[in-house]
Each structure stands twice: as C-alpha cells, then as structure tokens.
User: Which sequence fits this backbone?
C-alpha cells in the first residue's frame, strides 16, 4: 500500500482544498492508497471522524506553535511514525517547509496548485512566493486544478491539469427541496433568489455583490441575496464591513445569511442564479456543484474559464462594473436551468472516474 501524507493546512469542511481532497479520498482504492493528514489545529465542522473511518490518521500542530522550527519538529516526528511514499502539499503556507525535509528523507513530493493568485494582499503574495521557491526544486510531480493556477505557481515548469471533482448526484436539481428551502426563509414565489456560496472574505468579494444588489433593487427588480457561508477571525474586519454596507444601504430585509450548512444541494435548487464575483479562484468547487444543479452562473472573469462545463456560465469583469452585472443578471434570471447538466459533465474532463484515475496515477510513480 502507498501511504500519502496530505499537507492541506486544515481539515475544516468550509475549506475548498479539503473538499477537493475528500471527494477524491472517498473514491480512491484504499487497499492500494491511504491518506494521512498533517494540519494546523482545527475549529468549526471538520472531517476528522470521516478521515478516521476511511482508515486515515490526522496529526495536528497547534496554531500557537506554528513556527518554522515547530513545523519541522512535528513533520519529522510524523514521518518517523510511519513510512510515507509521498507528501502531497496543497496550501501556500509555512507547511511548505516540509517538502524540503521530505526530499531529504527520500519521500517523493507532489505539489498541488489551487489558486490563480498567491494572496489577495500584496505583502502576503511576496511572502507566499518566498514560501513557494522550494517547490521549483523539490517537486517530483506538479498538479493544478486549472491551467491558470498551474502557470501562477509553477511559472515555466510543466504540470498536470487535473480538474476538481464532486459527487455530482448530491447536487441534482430537485424542485421540491428548493421550495422547502425558500419556505424556510420566508421567500415568496415571485421573488428571485441570487446565491453566493463560500467564505465571507475579501477574496470572495461579497461587498461588490451587495453593490450590484443595490442597483437591482433601485430598478425595482424583486430579488433577494442569500449568502451561504461564514467567516473566520482573520476576516472579521471584512465581515463587519459587509454588515455595515447592508445597514447603511437599507438592505437588511434583502440579504439572508445562512451560516455554514451541510445540505448545499438543496440551496442550489432554491437559487435562480449563482454569483461568483471572486477576485481570484483556482477552480471553484462551488461553480462545479452549481453546474451539476443546472443553475445559471454569473462569474468574475478572474476565475478560470476552464470551470465552464455547460453553456449557462457567463464571465464578467467586476472592477467598477456593478451596472453591467445588474444588466446581465436581469437577462440570466429569465433563463431556465440546464436539466441535462450531469450528463454533460459525465462526458467532460470532470467525469468522476477520469479524475480519480488521474489522482491514483500520481501515486504510482
């Protein structure tokens, strides 16, 4: 059996990287390949119980001890507990130090790029580029969730493009489930629902979405904005700015916050359109899930175009383009879902078996 130590930074369910890894972990042949995880201590809902049921181990280091020396000590202890064939690194963070030590101990290194930017902060981008320099010399295999994400991290080096995969059946459109969600939040039949799914953060650009919502309401368009997700302490200031914008612009009755939810497929079935106004993304899993639901999507043009599997995805610039987004949203709200979406996905690179096979081949080297 090949044993792989996954460096995902966290095992929280709200983390996009972890959802990608877990979707694959559930499907791979665990008689041949097994995952363990070395991460920072976690809060919120997480995958710990599921990982252990699948046969994996989770090792964590307290965020209070997240110095480079403590990371090195913890990593070396873990790789001496078990023989690892691969270290699979997913996050641009201090954990990247581990791949140098993996090479020193004869462990093969896979580096996985998940984003088209190194950070939404200039100083952090420089820091993360420094953290990633050893990738250029230590990676045995380079993988990216999109062509753009690969070029950003690996520069001139070759990489393999493996798109993200989801369990598509969980997101099949169900009108009855969508109706129940709408009733839960007191939404009227004649109200259109715009959905945003993801962490409340500068990267996800919810304040831009609120500005577009303001324009739609000024034009007497009968819409509500549903924001699915929460924020962590690093994004507390941004969350306060979101709430302030809502209060200052009289949107309290027009915006619904759901917090973290587990039955996301039902929410897609309640939406009439999904907005993805992110400043950058590698391959947003949310966009794939919504397409499996057949839901029309209006996305930032900073998101990889390779996300588009079916025809009801439109990309637009977000910089001072609130009026353009409002006009395009009105057009899209008159369109219908694509009820053949999953059939089209199964005929694409996003086919579950194709993606799982590509992951398994990574560990055959």
Assistant:
């Amino acid at each position: 059996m090949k044993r792989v130590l996954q460096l995902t930074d966290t095992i929280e369910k709200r983390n996009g990287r972890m959802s990608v890894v877990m979707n694959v972990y559930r499907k791979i042949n665990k008689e041949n390949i097994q995952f363990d995880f070395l991460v920072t201590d976690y809060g919120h809902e997480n995958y710990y119980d599921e990982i252990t049921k699948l046969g994996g181990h989770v090792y964590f280091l307290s965020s209070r001890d997240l110095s480079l020396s403590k990371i090195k000590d913890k990593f070396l202890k873990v790789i001496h507990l078990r023989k690892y064939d691969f270290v699979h690194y997913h996050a641009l963070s201090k954990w990247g130090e581990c791949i140098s030590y993996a090479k020193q101990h004869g462990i093969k290194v896979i580096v996985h790029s998940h984003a088209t930017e190194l950070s939404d902060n200039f100083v952090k981008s420089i820091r993360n580029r420094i953290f990633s320099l050893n990738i250029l010399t230590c990676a045995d295999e380079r993988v990216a969730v999109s062509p753009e994400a690969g070029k950003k991290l690996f520069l001139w080096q070759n990489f393999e493009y493996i798109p993200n995969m989801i369990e598509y059946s969980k997101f099949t459109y169900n009108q009855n489930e969508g109706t129940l969600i709408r009733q839960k939040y007191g939404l009227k039949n004649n109200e259109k629902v715009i959905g945003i799914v993801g962490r409340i953060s500068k990267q996800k650009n919810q304040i831009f979405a609120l500005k577009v919502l303001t324009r739609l309401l000024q034009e007497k368009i009968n819409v509500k904005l549903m924001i699915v997700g929460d924020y962590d302490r690093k994004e507390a200031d941004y969350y306060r700015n979101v709430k302030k914008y809502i209060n200052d612009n009289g949107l309290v009755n027009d915006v619904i916050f759901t917090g973290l939810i587990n039955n996301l497929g039902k929410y897609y079935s309640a939406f009439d359109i999904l907005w993805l106004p992110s400043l950058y993304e590698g391959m947003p899993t949310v966009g794939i899930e919504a397409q499996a639901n057949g839901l029309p999507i209006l996305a930032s043009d900073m998101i990889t175009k390779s996300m588009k599997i079916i025809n009801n995805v439109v990309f637009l610039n977000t910089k001072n383009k609130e009026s353009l987004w409002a006009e395009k949203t009105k057009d899209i709200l008159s369109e219908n879902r694509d009820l053949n979406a999953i059939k089209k996905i199964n005929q694409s690179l996003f086919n579950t078996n194709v993606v799982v096979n590509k992951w398994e081949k990574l560990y055959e080297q």
Remarks:
- The first strand starts at residue 2 and ends at 9.
- The mean pLDDT is 91.
